[in-house]
Design a protein that fits this description.
The structure is a single chain. The protein has 176 residues and is an all-alpha fold. The protein has one domain. The protein is 65% helix and 0% strand. The protein has nine helices and no strands.
């Protein structure tokens, strides 16, 4: 699974209509928002405690199907997911994304809670298919949740340079 697989599950045209932007602007914002959510999950999955918490949350999203419209998405749950993924950096991250010249005019405080349940559902289903085993395997290269998220991040998108690594580096890199 790659970020492109996630993008294929997102009702981009409906999101574009909700946000009052073009399809291409919405797609670019979904790419950035999805990458940030995956990066936050990867950061959380780097510890045994974080990996265990993610696996517990994923169980609640197993069997999720792709929404056909934004109305099909529980945005309240999405807001909680975003808060857990980004933690105390949530406000700073959403402000940086909203201010980005690549996605000018997109309110990421609105977009991320739409994306979060979709991302969790896809990862939950991928994890279930892979049957990863105990939570201890998630924090390191044992085939756990960290490996699945890392695989998605490593696969990137077809857009090449200026993609996930640049987004995550600008938002999470260099800070403690």
């Amino acid at each position: 699974m790659a970020l492109d697989d996630i993008l294929a599950q997102v009702p981009i045209d409906d999101i574009a209509a909700r946000l009052g932007v073009s399809h291409d602007e919405a797609k670019a914002a979904v790419e950035q928002g999805g990458a940030v959510l995956l990066g936050g999950l990867a950061k959380n999955a780097s510890t045994t405690e974080g990996s265990s918490a993610i696996e517990s949350a994923l169980k609640r999203h197993e069997g999720a199907t792709a929404p056909t419209s934004v109305d099909d998405i529980d945005r309240t749950d999405g807001g909680k997911i975003v808060s857990h993924i980004l933690g105390p950096d949530e406000k700073e991250v959403t402000e940086k994304l909203t201010a980005s010249k690549k996605t000018a005019g997109i309110d990421f405080g609105t977009l991320l809670p739409i994306l979060a349940p979709i991302v969790m559902g896809l990862i939950a289903n991928a994890t279930k298919k892979k049957d990863t085993g105990p939570a201890e395997s998630g924090a390191s290269g044992g085939g756990g949740i960290g490996d699945i998220i890392g695989g998605i991040l490593g696969a990137g998108t077809s857009s090449g340079r200026g993609g996930i690594g640049d987004i995550l580096g600008g938002l999470f890199g260099g800070r403690k």
